Structure formats: C-alpha cells, structure tokens
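Work Package 3 (structural annotation) set out to generate three-dimensional models for the target panel prioritized at the project kickoff. During this period the team completed the workflow that converts sequence records into discrete structure tokens, so that structures can be stored uniformly alongside our sequence database. As a representative example, we reproduce one entry of 381 residues exactly as it appears in the project archive.
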Amino acid sequence: MTNDPIALLAELVAIPSVNPDLVPGADGEAAIGDFCADWFARRGFEVHRLERNPGRPTIVGVVRGTGDGRSIILNGHYDTVTLQGYEADPLKPERKDGKLYGRGAYDMKAGVAAMMMAADRARQARVAGDVIVSCVADEEYASFGTFEVLEIFKPDAAINTEPSHLDLVVAHKGFAWYDVIVHGRAAHGSRWQYGIDAITKAGKFLVALEALDRGYRANPTHSQLGAGSVHASLIEGGEQLSSYPAECRIQLERRTIPGETGESIAAELQAIIDRIASDDPDFRADVVPGLVRPPYEVSEDVEIVQIVKEAATRRLNKKAILRGDAYWTDCALLAAAGIPTVMFGPTGYGAHAAVEWVEEASVHAVADVLTDAVLAFCGQR
C-alpha cells in the first residue's frame, strides 16, 4: 500500500502490456489491467472493467465524492509498443541518476502512476466531487479504450497525463490515413501499346503530394501548431518483371490542424487526381479513406486549464508554460466528447525508442499538481 508513485511506476513497468494490434501475439493489457483493478479495489475505489475486446481491458477506478462537487476524469494509457530492439531488459525497471528506465516508463506508465496516486490522495482528503481514473487500453493503435470509457462516463473536466515535460499542452495535431490506388492496364512487357504502367503513373501523384506538403509548411496558419503535413508511408505495385503493373497502391498519412477534417483531406487528394487526369487521359486513381483522428485544442481561458496552470506554477516554483505539440493523444477524443481537457505529464525520453526513461522528480511533481488540481476543481469536505 505504498504512497510512492515511483514504486508504483516500477511495478507497472515490470508488467508486459505490448499492444497486440502493433505486435501480433503480444500479451496485451490483461495482466496490467488485473494489477490496476486490484490496486484500486484495495484502496476502496469503485472498480469498472471495460472489456469489449477480450483480453484487452480498460480499468476505471472511481472515487465517489462526499457530495456537491464537480467530477473530473484522469486519463492515461498503459499499453506500450514493442519490447523488441530495447537495449536492456525492457521489463526490468532500473533506477539510476534520478531516472527510471524501462519500456513504457515515459510513454506513459509514469503518467498513469501519477494519476492513480493523485486520485488516492484526493480520496483520503475527502474530495467533494467524483474522481474517475481511466487506465485505458489501445491508445497506441486505435484508442478503443478511451472510446469505451466515454460511452459510460461524462465528467465535467479531464486531465490527460501523457508526457508533456511539465508543460500544459493545449493543442495537438490529428492524423488521417488514406490509400490512393492508381490504376493501369496489365500487359506483357513487350507489348507497350496495350499496357499502362500504374507505377509510373503513381509517380505523378507522388510528385504532386510532395508539392502539397511543401505548400502546407510554407503557409502555417495555427498559432500553436503551425501547419499540417503529408507524406507517403507505404507503396506497393506490380506482379512480375515482365508485365505492365495494373495497380499501384500508395498509403499516406496526413497530419492535421484544427479546421481540417477527413472530408477536406479527401477533397484535396481528389483535386490532385483530377488535375493530373486533366493532362493525362490514361491516369486513373481512387481515394480510399482509413483511420481518421481529429486534432485537439482547448482555450487557455477554460477553468480546468487555469486550475492546472496555477497548481503547476505553485508546485514547480516557476510560471507554467502552455503550448501545442505535434503528436496525437486521447485528449482529442475527450475534447470531441465535449469535455474540457488539458494535458499535463512528466519529463523523460525515448517514446518508442531503444532506451526509455522518465525523470523521477517529474513524476512526483505531476502527482502533486494533479492532487492540487483535482481538489481545487472538485472541491473538498
């Protein structure tokens, strides 16, 4: 029953929780879900196990307030990327020079440990409103864990504890995946008069895609995030050396800023296809949408932002920084559900890298700031 967030973090790091949608056959979140459920139960939390996908639980621990306070959700994911390629033992937490090393230490079991500990402190302090702690599965792939949480819980505010280096993140980019399928005509390699080479036709689209990306970066429009971007991620086409390829598939990723939607991106891509086709009657291509996740932003004037800002300034003895970031998080889903949301998390290094660590002092700081913010927002008896 330790009250030390670092000791809790070490226990979390030691539990394998690799996302099986990223690494087929991986353990998934069952073991770490069991651990968190037991941790909450032993401290008197109300425990909810959400497991629409068998073996992939999301655990929600709830502190029921003493009455008349507002509710808040603390959100973080406990799934990780692969253990392969990690330089040391990824499941053996190592403490050295004020840092804790191990897979998931930074991204983002440190934030999970801090929010669990803060909620327990709020419980002991007799918080007036409900504190909902969502330890979610699958953020590293499709975020079905947070989607499940939002079907049941509708709090008044949210704090996500992804690593933010003790800054308040008030905006981040979204992303969208698309396939562009360029069509040719199959023929024997010697019969050029019958074949249409889908791969060389795809080259025209790739050149236009590069120009589109340069145009974004030359004209940034968002004060926190700058501009969107686009790149080709995967390409596949052809069957054999002696044939004209009938199809070439380009898989691309578009990083988005507020105001850009799946529909607007599809229209951009279709405009490129139409422009090429107007000059080349043999050019044909289709746009196929894939996974789309929205960008996120919150006004700096929103109350939960101001409360976390004041708590961070007080605890860190310096003015808190508010900024945007490029990567995507579940903040976007919380905000899209109408919940005022801010991100605040620890300092470290090595998300998805061969070495990963979190600064221990920053984990303590996050737990302290979250405790203060929860009591300020939810009230205290």
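Residues 174-293 form a domain with the Alpha-Beta Plaits fold (CATH 3.30.70.360).
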